Amino acid sequence: MKTITLFAILSIVGFQVSAQKSDIKTAPVLSDLENILSAVVKMPIFQITKDGSPVYHFEPTPVDFYTNFSINGQFPDTISVKDMASVALSAVKALAQKTQELSENQKLLEQTVQRLNETTEQAYKLAMQANEIQVTLTNLQIKLTESEAKINALEMQMKQK
């Protein structure tokens, strides 16, 4: 198994999170990006106030958090910054992947629409040509009928003579 060295300073909350060389890197727990997004969406977020303070925070409960993401938290009554950051980064990665997939699908759809427009234009041109041919055919049929009528009239005149 590989070892990792990770050091991150979360200046916003003032916590230092680190993984030591002795930590063992195993298969990513949050590797299924589709399930990560689903878990983020399903996880309830609560408005929490402490000791009647007017200051409140929005956060999931540790039980909901660890249950939704199948993470074994070090302390069951708190969510570690490391776990929260890992889930957040995984969710960002999942959204980036979704965005890429949607972008590729959009390109395919645009190409399909372009081909459909071209096909529709060709079909319209062919329909116009078929209409012109039908008009020409109708005119020829009229002339043929007129010619047959003239032939019949001439034949009748010849029989009378």
Q: Tell how many strands the DSSP assignment holds.
A: 4
Strand order in space, largest sheet: 1-2
Radius of gyration: 39 Å
The arrangement of helices and strands along the chain is EEHEEHH
Strand content: 5-15%
Report on the biggest sheet. 2 strands, antiparallel
List keywords for this structure.
single chain; 161 residues; 4 strands
Overview of this protein structure:
The chain is mainly alpha-helical and 161 residues long. The chain has a domain at 6-116. 61% of the residues lie in helices and 11% in strands. It has helices spanning 33-42, 62-69, 81-160; strands spanning 6-10, 15-19, 46-49, 56-59. The strands form 2 sheets. The chain has a two-stranded antiparallel ribbon with strand order 1-2. Helix 1 crosses helix 3. The longest helix is centred in the last third of the chain and has 80 residues, at 81-160. The chain is rod-shaped, with a radius of gyration of 39 Å. It starts with 5 loop residues before the first strand and ends with a helix. The relative contact order is 0.07. The model is unreliable at 1-19 (pLDDT under 50).
Summarize the structure.
This protein is mainly alpha-helical. It has 3 helices and 4 strands. It has a domain at 6-116.
Secondary structure blueprint with pairings:
Blueprint: E1 6-10, E2 15-19, H1 33-42, E3 46-49, E4 56-59, H2 62-69, H3 81-160
Antiparallel strand pairs: 1-2, 3-4
Helix pairs in contact: 1-3
